[in-house]
Design goal:
- It is a single chain.
- By secondary structure, this protein is α+β, with helices and mostly antiparallel strands.
- The longest helix is centred in the middle third of the chain and has 16 residues.
């Protein structure tokens, strides 16, 4: 579970039930991450076996690694981030995580997390080998239809290359559930409307005299692309997918 709020938390290897939102929002709304970690560790009888990372609404993140965690275990922190791990091949894994995170400041948040995870994996990752990977991103009202805070919730439980598979799933999720960029929307008129109508008809969604919008809505619902629909416009991501899945239909030629 996840709820949008002012911070984030993670625990391991001996996970605690307050992982998933509790610590990040405990106490004063602007509590420093290191104060939150200190309070949680002080109250935790299993602190020696616990690893914990907390990022607050602002300021540096905080990390704790109990001395009984399986080696190699440790973490690094910086402004707005915390990277930690256990049962790793060595400190180079956390270094790679941190460096990739810092280098990805222009990337979308979820893609930036996966890039950091990939860098850590390529640096050695878990010394036991590869098996699973997961990604949880929450944002207030960021879920499907704005009805939840869960923006991304993906898991790969058992796979020979889980981080690559996680990246593939994220790409599918982004296509299906991200909202369109208003700056890229195309007017659903003229040559664009003609092409869309022909593609939809080839897929068994005939267009009426009112234009392709109703047929586009019907088709997009079957493809789970309804989050990308905008009245009177078409998202280029939707148009690209429509072209890809339709039988070959030549695009209308521009007027000479």
């Amino acid at each position: 579970m996840g709820a949008g709020g002012p911070g984030a938390s993670w625990t391991g290897p001996a996970c605690h039930p307050w992982a998933g939102g509790g610590p990040a929002t405990a106490g004063p709304r602007r509590a420093a991450a290191d104060d939150v970690v200190a309070g949680l560790i002080a109250a935790d009888p299993e602190r020696e076996h616990r690893q914990l990372g907390v990022v607050g609404a602002g300021g540096p993140g905080a990390s704790w690694t109990g001395p009984a965690c399986h080696p190699w275990a440790g973490g690094r922190t910086g402004d707005g981030w915390a990277a930690q791990g256990n049962v790793l091949t060595g400190p180079e894994v956390v270094d790679a995580l941190a460096d990739a995170w810092l280098a990805g400041s222009t990337m979308p948040f979820a893609e930036r997390l996966v890039a950091a995870l990939r860098a850590g994996d390529e640096a050695g990752g878990d010394r036991r080998g590869r098996q699973s990977a997961g990604l949880l991103v929450v944002e207030r009202g960021g879920g499907y239809g704005g009805r939840s805070d869960v923006l991304v919730d993906l898991r790969v439980d058992d796979h020979p290359d889980p981080v690559t598979e996680l990246g593939r799933l994220l790409a599918v999720h982004t296509m299906l559930f991200s909202r369109p960029d208003p700056a890229t929307l195309l007017d659903l008129s003229g040559a664009v409307a003609d092409e869309v109508a022909a593609l939809l008809a080839a897929l068994g969604h005939p267009v009426t005299g009112d234009g392709p919008e109703a047929a586009l809505t019907s088709w997009a619902g079957l493809e789970n692309l309804e989050e990308r629909l905008v009245p009177g416009r078409i998202d280029p991501v939707v148009l690209t997918h429509l072209r890809r899945v339709s039988p070959h239909v030549p695009a209308p030629r521009a007027a000479s």
